[in-house]
Amino acid sequence: MEDFIKKLSEEAKKISLEPRKRVSVRENLLLFMKENPLARAEPQKKVMPTFRKNIASPYISFLQKMSRVPLGAFAGILLLIVSGTVYGAEGSLPGDMLYSFKTGVNERVRSVLAFGAENDLQYHVDALDRRLSEGEQLAVAMRLGKQESAYLEKALDSERKKIADGIVKLETDGNYKTAVTLSSRAEVKLKAHQAVLSELALANTDTLNNNISTFLFSVEGHRDALHTIKNSAVEVLVRESQQPALESPTLAKLKSTEEQLAYADKKTQQQSKSTASMEDEPYPSVSSMRVMGFAVEASPEVTVESKIKAARDSYTRGNEFFQAGEYGKAYVLFDESSALLEEADLMKTLSEKFKLPIVIHTDTPSFEFKETSTTQVIPTLKATVTPKKIEIKTPTGNPLLEAKASTTVPQFSASSSSTSRESVSTSSTPLSP
Amino acid sequence: MENLGENQRFIESYEDYADAIYRHCYFRLYEKEQSRDIMQETYLRAWEYLAKGKKVENLRAFLYKIANNLCIDYIRRKKESSLDALVEEGFDASLEGAREIERKSEASRAISTLQKLDELYREVMIMRYVDDLSVKEIAEIMGETENTISVRIHRSLAELKEVFVPEE
Q1: In whole angstroms, what is the distance from residue B90 CA to residue A2 CA?
Q2: What is the SS3 string spanning A109-170?
Q3: b/e sequence A96-130, b meaning 16+ C-beta within 10 Å
Q4: Which residue of A has its CA nearest to B6?
Q5: Using CA of residue A283, residue A286, residue A292, residue A297, what is the dihedral sign?
Q6: Domain locations in chain B?
Q7: CB distance B51–A37 less than 8 Å?
């Protein structure tokens, strides 16, 4: 392949105009230029010097100028410079001059302003999203080298650990609802970016592909790790599903999910109108992508629609549980619905940003609550997994402490891109009220 | 004086880029005469623009932009007006040029492989690997973002792999 490109460049350079024809075109051009002379350029106005030219140092000149500037204007200029740097640093990527300003100043300020455990956790979810986005932008700009990839993997690892710690802390405090919601948010970010990175890896040259794949590998690992932590919070909500205290927050969740669904419908309608009016398709159709060997399963529109449909199904099922007084299960399903909608929205945004047809793995999680032989209701999660036994130890002071759960959790398998689904089952001691 | 300098610079640009612009058109159209005409038209239009007193920051990119648009116009016109009639007569417009190149150029295989790519991909491949233009310049010429062009180049390479491998 490289040989082909090299040969193409070499051979192309041999193609040139015949000297006789080259001269003939040149003569035509000269004649045309003579007949159509350039518009006479306006004479430049002379600028009168406002201060002496023989100033010894440019700093003195600067200070002299600044001394004439009122203090308010000086502060304004300073503010402009600082805000310009802050703004400029926001779009910087690893390896850029302003990147250390972005992570060292901009993000540090945000981190300090994030009061409370929930806000702090939300800050780390956003930071995770930013690192993933930076990885994609570097890949698209063909700048994701080994060094950048290693840096981002380390940063991702650090953010994931902080998120995991935060979720465990929420669980320790008995705030299982927020633990489920925020771990879902983190999972959504990882899933959407995972899809984009997979697509970028497919479309890239071998060297870059390796770096993207390495990065992608770590993303998938983080997603599985967070999923495991989320599952333990889900488990508690399912066990305590009929707790009356859960009714009010579940009702609030129901309403917010309804609003999200209505918004998604509105956006889909707008999108279908604009798609119908589009004349040119900037990228090949899905069918032609298949012919080219891309593992495209659906166009972004189709995918987004299927996500919204799945979200609606979860919402409907959640509603049924809510009516039956199973608030915990309803909460889990409303959260799933909300996460699916957020994922659809993010995927849509990313596919438009990078003009990519998004590859969607058919591992949309969907909770099914099954009755076990011990009449215990447990969640079952569908996922792209290879089962692996792990031990989940719970913190002191938590009702879960006495229940040392032995759980089969999704484990990332690098060798397989299978879309098979296996259920995740949990068995644990029921919680005391 | 200043105008004389401008004239000189423009003529120098002809010396520097005429072959490259011609090559670009040749790879797009596979027709020698038409490529030469479009190259000439490119320079005339560029001069017409400058003669109105308008400024161009990157003359090379500007020339490619004009040439690219002229090629697109020509391909579109040709498809619309004459392809049906030519096909009825048993004449394949796209292959005719390729045959000529096959006879006269050592790059025949490379060119015929490029021919198998979609127009959208062929366009960026020629600009990147035949014209040696940077991603930034291609983006400027095509009025797209650098990200879009990078993705398009990656996809072109992927598609090229698909069409190229079976021939090896």
Answers
A1: 37
A2: HHHHHCCHHHHHHHHHHHHHHHHHHHHHHHHHCCCCCHHHHHHHHHHHHHHHHHHHHHHHHH
A3: eebbebbbeebbeeeeeebeebbeebbbbbbbbbb
A4: A38
A5: positive
A6: 1-70
A7: yes
> Could you give the C-alpha distances from A397 to A80, A144, A169, A236, A420, in angstroms and in order?
51, 45, 11, 15, 39
**Cβ contacts from A onto B, under 8 A:** 126
Question: CB contact, 8 Å: A29 with chain B?
Answer: yes
Query: pLDDT 10s digit of each residue in chain A, 433 long?
Result: 677 777 777 777 778 888 888 888 888 888 888 888 887 655 544 444 444 444 445 555 565 666 666 667 767 777 777 777 666 677 788 878 788 777 877 777 777 777 777 888 888 898 889 888 888 888 877 778 888 888 888 888 888 888 888 888 888 888 888 888 898 989 888 888 888 887 777 766 565 667 777 777 778 788 888 888 888 888 888 888 888 888 888 989 898 899 888 888 887 777 666 655 544 444 333 333 333 333 334 455 556 778 888 899 999 999 999 999 999 989 999 999 999 888 888 888 877 777 766 544 444 455 666 544 433 444 444 433 333 333 333 333 333 333 333 333 333 333 333 333 333 333 333 333 3
The gap between the terminal CA atoms of chain A, to the nearest Å, is 66
Q: Running DSSP on this structure, what letter comes out for residue B131?
A: S
Measured between CA atoms, how close is A3 to chain B, in angstroms?
11
Q: Which CATH architecture has domain B1-70?
A: Orthogonal Bundle (1.10)
Asked whether the beta carbons of residue A29 and residue B51 sit closer than 8 angstroms, the reply is no
What's the one-letter identity of residue A223?
A: R
Residue type, B106: E
**CA–CA separation, A424 and A385 (whole Å):** 9
Residue A181 structure tokens: 């919601």
Cβ B167 vs Cβ B113: under 8 Å: yes
